[in-house]
Amino acid sequence: MSQINEESQTLNDSNLLILGNFVSKDGYTEDAKTDVIKQFETLKSFNGKVIFTPGQNEWLLMAIEM
Fold first, then answer.
1. Contact assessment for residue 46 and residue 5, using Cβ atoms and an 8 Å cutoff
2. How far is CA 7 from the centre of its chain?
3. pLDDT tens track for 46-62
4. Integer CA distances (angstroms), 54 to 11, 20, 60, 64, in order
5. Residue 63 has pLDDT above 70, yes or no
6. Is the dihedral of CA 57, 61, 63, 64 positive or negative?
7. Residue 53, CB half-sphere, CA atoms under 13 Å: how many?
8. Mean pLDDT calculated for residue range 15-31
9. b/e per residue 40-64 (b: at least 16 CB within 10 A)
10. What letters, b where the CB count within 10 A reaches 16 and e where it falls short, cover 2-27?
11. What are the residues whose beta carbons fall under 8 Å from the beta carbon of 24, sequence distance 6 or more?
12. Dihedral (CA of 44, 10, 49, 17) sign
């Protein structure tokens, strides 16, 4: 993600589409969760739009948490 972020800094109009189902059906361990959060935090300075499309696994995890 950091390389994508760096590349966006050289472009005028960037878009990043993140497709869902990158989360396993069982979720993450706390260590893995921390790593994923760090990766996504690098996108705070992304030069453009970041679009996240949740997949079935993300919807499933949100439903379980509710």
1. yes
2. 17
3. 999 999 888 888 887 66
4. 26, 4, 10, 15
5. no
6. positive
7. 4
8. 84
9. eeebeebeeebeeebeebeeebeee
10. eeebeebeeeeebebeeeeeebeeee
11. 57
12. negative
User: Containing H/E element for 6?
Assistant: helix 2-8
* pTM (2 d.p.): 0.69
Question: Which candidate, 63, 66, 64, 59, places its Cα nearest to that of 23?
Answer: 59
- What is the residue whose two structure tokens read 């760096």? 6
The DSSP result for the chain, as a single string, is -HHHHHHHTT-SSEEEEEES--S-TT---HHHHHHHHHHHHGGGG-SEEEEEE--HHHHHHHHHH-
